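Researcher: Quick sanity check before group meeting.
Model: Go ahead. Protein one:
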Amino acid sequence: MNQRIYVDNAATTKVNPQVLEAMLPYLGGTYGNPSSIYAEGREAKTAVETARAQVATAIGAEPNEIYFTGSGSEADNWAIRSVARSLKEKGNHIITTAVEHHAVLHTCQSLEKEGFEVTYLPVDAYGRVSAEDVKAAIKDTTVLITVMFANNEIGTLMPISQIGAVAKEAGVLFHTDAVQAIGMVPIDVKTMNIDLLSLTGHKFHGPKGSGALYVRKGVKLNSFITGGAQERGRRAGTENVPGIVGLGKAIELATADIPKKAAYLTQLRDRYISKILEQVPYAQLNGHPEERLPGNANISFSFIEGEGLLLFLDMKGISASSGSACTSGSLDPSHVLLAIGRKHEEAHGSLRCSFDMENTIEDVDAIVAAVSEIVARLRAMSPLYETFLKENK
């Protein structure tokens, strides 16, 4: 295989050439500080505000509801901590799910040490939480509901509009981590009743180190970093102008024709899933078969270790993942796979392929052939598999 096949786009994406082109002037000649009043500063300020409008348009928000951050994780931290602390006199209860990204889970766990009560709702076998369960968990002391838009590991889409309606009816603020969903599914924060939303550029062909937090007008947002008047006094520090410009251009491109993109990625995804399940025994799809991100396919293979599968795929020129990029160095089984009922050994044998528009049908078929061969090879070395076959003759 001469050219590598990259199918780990849920971890990060390649910067779009048009995005890089938009960024380049602000890495060189146009280097002014947006806080400065002279010409170079005003030019940088204009670029930042243009990007703010691009982000707002992409999610149905207003420009003054967008705050730039350094990452999606920062946006999650800011949203959850700010709401919890600013509403502490009203209540101390937060509702989330057991399958959130660690940027949400660890933030909630740290708030528990400050005296907050957190309900971690279970999910069904597909990784979905129901709006009814969210509604049943609401108390008089509930100040925030935070449920991810789409799961980063298994691709399952949450019923965001229904949860938003529940939150609005109860008068509780609703935050969603939409890091994986931007550019993949249509998002309108107003019609979906989303009060706060986190996103990051490098998941949709923007630069790393660029993110944003949407905060509905009227929601109190505490300062996250103090020391300057940037981001309307709520996040100090000279703006990352090239990164912000890149984020704005990337989100504009990513949301330009979502139905066309989704149709193509769904075709690749479904071809991969059907061929793997057809050709490899003792394999099972993780996540909802239909209510999932168009490019995400996560499959568990019994009797193998995912790490070995990844290493052999890498040797064949294929880049994939065993789960969340933020925990790929951990030997612990995925908390998401455990939450949907997978056994430890099944969770350890998972493979996530996240496809992009640059991937082809030929890529899919090459991955299927490689995975089939490697899984068979790994199982041939597994005493557990040998015992299983003997016991199930």
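Researcher: Fine. The other one?
Model: Protein two, sequence then structure:
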Amino acid sequence: MNKFALTVENLTKIYSNSKTKKQNKALNNLNFEVRQGEVFGLLGPNGAGKTTFLSILGGTVSKTSGKVNVWGFDLDQNPRQVRASLGIVPQEVNLDAFFSPKKLLELQAGLYGIAKKDRITDLILKMVALEEKAEAYSRSLSGGMKRRLLIAKAMVHQPPILILDEPTAGVDVELRNNLWKNVKELNKEGVTIILTTHYLIEAQEMCDRIAIVDKGNLVALDTTEKLLERIKTKKINFKVKNIDSNKSLLMKDINFKINSKNSIIVTYEKNSLDFSEIINYLNENKIKIEDITTEEGDLEDVFVQLTKH
């Protein structure tokens, strides 16, 4: 087994309109790898090509060209082995309301042809913290529990790769945190996680590496830390004592904004100067500093910078 859970080479998908003869390139020569055991984020605005990519992996859409290898199996040559290596958690909650979680997992295991003696239904329910609801009707579960049950369904055949498509859409903060706790536990057990989300702060906190796609093109692929380093601007808020709003503050490559008589906002490029130079400048101008807060760029800033969305 190689060190990559997933490799994508020159993956292209073109949709053709038979009436207008126009072609829409949903994916354009995508190239990237997902390493075994990592949490990998796949981000992009609506229409970027994420759903097309996941549909190709799931077998519901055929690629136009390129190669996809999942857990050592080629998508064209070994499609069944590829499906067996993936557990896909869909964005939509689609559960039979009158089956219990345990019954649903047993049925799912049967669909995968797993013998009763080899099923780990109880263990999976425990992993997603649903053991106490094992015999309850699915319709009685909360939104967060239903999301966790979808993860459990995707895990019945013990796939090494779990794909989460917008798993926390419409889930409140507490349930979202519980869901991520479960996902982190699965990752600790060695499961490779591929995640799509519109909550960029989640991707920033959860992912080891992130790929950003836009209009079918890969526009960034790096560790979360290195993507954040792309944001050069730093913002500092100085709480000061009674500054004149008409006072002129000038330094090379520094933007000063007097927000109020007690606030100055300073923005500058991180590597352009030492922070102490700003402090010295304010002291020289007899401005009394009472407090300092700083803001670093986050993944949303990187996303907007790369996709213009």
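Researcher: One line on it for the slide.
Model: The two ends are 39 Å apart (CA to CA).
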